Amino acid sequence: MTIDRIPPMAAPTGTDFVFFIHGVNTRLGPNNPGYARNLISLLIEANDHPRLTLSLHELEWYTIMQEAEQQLLQWLNESPHWRRSWFRDFRRTQIIPFTGDAALYISRYIGSEVVKLLKEQAVEILRHSNPETDRLHLVAHSWGSVILFDIFFAGRWDNPDIPGYEDAQFIRRAIFGLEPESQQGIRVASIHTLGSPVALANLINLKRMTAHPGTKLNEKSIRTVFTHDITFGLEQLLHMLYDRHSKPLTWRNFAHVGDPVAYPLATIIPKLISVEESGKHYLDIEDVSTRGTGFLEIIASLLRRSFLALVNGGNAHQSYWRNRRVAQMIVQMIRKSA
């Protein structure tokens, strides 16, 4: 897909809030003060419309995971076998943070802490917004995209007896089209997934569809049986947005060709939900293939048919944060959805 210069258009009114949500293995420090810092700079540079007001915000949840992972590493260091194990640095800096962050979020207790932290950050930002004129754009990387859809749509947060219920409901009340108060809140105007494994997470939904073909989901079934299914809530949101604004929700799924975590969505999501009905087109979703730069990228490209290309997998998975084309397309979609 090529990026064309956007033709002149009426100046948008209101503010476009952009929330960034990181994935697993994101850690900030003196050498990495902001995970979306490069992409934010590129977005500001790409915004050549003097009347397009962007309010750009990083949300973080990694701090919830650090304490548990540090405790695990302390126990591992007490093991003689661990001290004899190969590639300990790779396990410590890559495998444990990647699998650990995902596993911890799935747990009800840790997941509820993540929801609470994200709610506190989002509320502080959105209290300055005007739902009547402003819009919200979501940029979610890796496992962050799974967390985003889980909080918005999964029935596992609909049980008032569980930790995290109130925080999840508070977030949903702030978003137009989400229950329990679907007629209020700020409008989600576009979604941008970067290196997303949402397709893999939706294996749960595919299993349901094959095991129970023709079965329609309802509020009771997602609260009691299909608790991780996101399709029911997502479809409701799309229909509400279209009924209010008469335009489909824009969704761009960026996937580096060498990123082992990134999978297409444009051919999957429409098979899971109803995106078109009676001439109404509810979702504008496209996959966008990306590439990076640098020596490892060149080597991996030459070895792309071999497992050796995975040497660039980590770099490919993080490349979206510094990709100028990604930034240009996000700004283009923001202007399109205004």
Q: What are the SSEs and their pairings?
A:
Layout: E1 15-21, H1 37-46, E2 53-59, H2 63-77, H3 80-84, H4 88-106, H5 108-126, E3 135-141, H6 143-153, H7 165-173, E4 187-194, H8 198-201, H9 203-211, H10 219-224, H11 231-245, E5 249-256, H12 269-272, E6 276-277, E7 280-281, E8 283-290, H13 295-302, H14 313-318, H15 324-337
Parallel strand pairs: 1-2, 1-3, 3-4, 4-5, 5-8
Antiparallel strand pairs: 6-7
Helix pairs in contact: 1-15, 5-7
Verbal overview:
It contains 15 helices and eight strands. It is α/β, with parallel strands linked by helices and 338 residues long. The protein has one domain (15-337): Rossmann fold, CATH 3.40.50. It has a six-stranded parallel sheet with strand order 2-1-3-4-5-8, with helices on both faces. It has a two-stranded antiparallel ribbon with strand order 6-7. Residues 1-9 have low confidence and may be disordered.
Provide the structure class: alpha/beta
- Find the CATH superfamily: Alpha/Beta hydrolase fold, catalytic domain
Mean pLDDT: 83
**Cα end-to-end separation:** 21 Å
Number of helices: 15
Query: What is the count of β-strands?
Result: 8
Tally of distinct domains: 1
Give the biggest beta sheet.
6 strands, parallel
CATH architecture annotation: 3-Layer(aba) Sandwich
Q: How much helix is in the residues?
A: 40-55%
CATH class: Alpha Beta
Oligomerization status of the protein chains: single chain
For the biggest β-sheet, the strand order reads 2-1-3-4-5-8
Low-confidence stretches: 1-9
Taken in chain order, the helices and strands follow as: EHEHHHHEHHEHHHHEHEEEHHH
State which percent range the strand residues make up. 5-15%
- What is the CATH third-level topology name? Rossmann fold
Q: Shape, please?
A: globular
